[in-house]
Amino acid sequence: MSASLRAAVLDGTDRPAPKNCEEQHHVSDTPGASTPAGAGDSETERPLRILIGADTFAPNVNGAARFAERLAAGLVERGHEVHVVAPAANRKHGTWKEIHEGQEIIAHRLYSWRWYPHDWLRFALPWRIKQNSARVLDEVKPDVVHFQSHIITGRGLSIEAEKRGIRIVGTNHFMPENMLEFTLLPKAWQDWAVGLAWKAARRTFGRAESVTTPTRKAAQFLEKHTGLSGVHAISCGIDAHKYSPNWEQRTENRILFVGRVTGEKQIDVLLRALTLLPAELDAKVEIVGGGDQKRNLEHFAAELGIADRVTFTGYVTDDELRDAYHRASVLAMPSIAELQSIVTMEAMASALPVVAANAMALPHLVHDGENGYLFEPSSPEDLAAKLRHVLEASPDEYRALKDGSIRLIAAHDIQRTLSTFESLYRGKPVTDPVTYVAPAALPE
Questions:
Q1: Any idea where the Glycosyltransferase subfamily 4-like N-terminal domain is (predicted)?
Q2: Phi and psi at residue 353, to the nearest 5°
Q3: How far apart are CA 104 and CA 373, in angstroms?
Q4: What is the pLDDT of residues 180-190, one digit of tens each?
Q5: What is the pTM of this model?
Q6: 81 and 109 inside one domain
Q7: Three-class secondary structure assignment of the chain
């Protein structure tokens, strides 16, 4: 569980939970009421009231939830008033203040149901989302609505915000294929379901004044499947200063994976690759994260005869995650469905070399021979070969890979991301930040 929610509920902790979603605490009535004394009177200077809508938010641990949390906290730190609409993490629902990344946001937690095919997912009720969206919008009166998913929360907020003439920004973190294993649909129906999901995305994102996604490749992917145009590529960004490099000499060969332990992450490919590494490397794998496939993968590791070399930590705190990056020799990212991969960026900020699948947006972050290597997706043989390149590198070669990660991550500073979104919230034209750093020139 994210450590950033450990101080969670400031208002409402000691009172009974609201009986229904309509029992809310009124926050304010007038847009811009949070403007501090002495602030400029112009539209471009006054703080904004921003409503972020998300189908997954802390304490959920996934890329979309972490981005929404960091975005909300970063905007508050810049002086804006930020509200977040998201499913309740348990049976308690209502409106209260929460602390995320050290900043106070106002959370509107919607009554939610648990989706039992998934190990933790809860969702707001689709048939009540318009009603709840209308209520929250009329109470908050935001300057802008920024939804992070088109599925339920974003759909309701976009419909009701459009009726009220509120500026809408939409960000896509979703690939329908990532949810197929949790739908329980027969394989024969899955292509049909994916088609419906993209049509729904087209309708919801079509209401937004600006549409964004984390990388240029992800933007092209969204445009192709929805027919939209002009999608902005804006990196999720990270607070790189929160991750410190470890320059100490390695004492073991430890391969790290961080993320949800689910099918699309292809962790089984990593386990197979471990069996192909030379015994003299004495390589170990550490898998940080939880998910529905954890038990199956533990059994699979035992079947492969490598259970004594594979550690499943489950969910960890932020401090424990930073320690994991410091213990590791290399990050392995076998997933084939990453629209950006915040984990890969965190590892790079920790000066880790990365071996990643040559799929979706990962080539934006990993450059062959510069900060790691790309391998053929789903190939344990190629993954093992690329891991050997890192683990058998000389000290100078290994240090060069670490330096490469630090250099390449500089383009993903979250402050650039925040500034770009602030411009979109104010209706200003923006130029997408340049986040793809060209590979370093090879010496002649």
A1: 61-240
A2: -65, 155
A3: 40
A4: 555 555 666 66
A5: 0.72
A6: yes
A7: CCHHHCCCECCCCCCCCCCCCCCCCCCCCCCCCCCCCCCCCCCCCCCCEEEEECCCCCCCCCHHHHHHHHHHHHHHHCCCEEEEEEECCCCCCEEEEEEECCEEEEEEEECEEECCCCCCCEEECHHHHHHHHHHHHHHHCCCEEEECCCCCHHHHHHHHHHHCCCEEEEECCCCHHHHHHHHCCCHHHHHHHHHHHHHHHHHHHCCCCEEEECCHHHHHHHHHHHCCCCCEECCCCECHHHCCCCCCCCCCCEEEEECCCCHHHCHHHHHHHHHHCCHHHCCEEEEEECCCCHHHHHHHHHHHCCHHHEEEEECCCHHHHHHHHHHCCEEEECCCCCCCCHHHHHHHHCCCCEEEECCCCHHHHCCECCCEEEECCCCHHHHHHHHHHHHCCCHHHHHHHHHHHHHHHHHHEHHHHHHHHHHHHCCCCCCCCCCCCCCCCCCC
| Same domain (yes/no): 80, 217 | yes
Residues 127 and 193 in one domain: yes
Same domain, yes or no, for 155 and 295?
A: no
Note the pLDDT tens digit of each residue in 239-249: 888 899 989 88
| Same domain for 299 and 167 | no
Residues 143 and 252 in one domain: no
Q: Please tell me whether residues 245 and 335 are part of one structural domain.
A: yes
Q: Which of 6-10, 211-215, 274-278 has the lowest mean pLDDT?
A: 6-10
Q: Which domain holds residue 292?
A: 240-411
How is residue 260 written in tokens? Answer: 């949800």
Which CATH number does the domain housing residue 218 bear? 3.40.50.2000
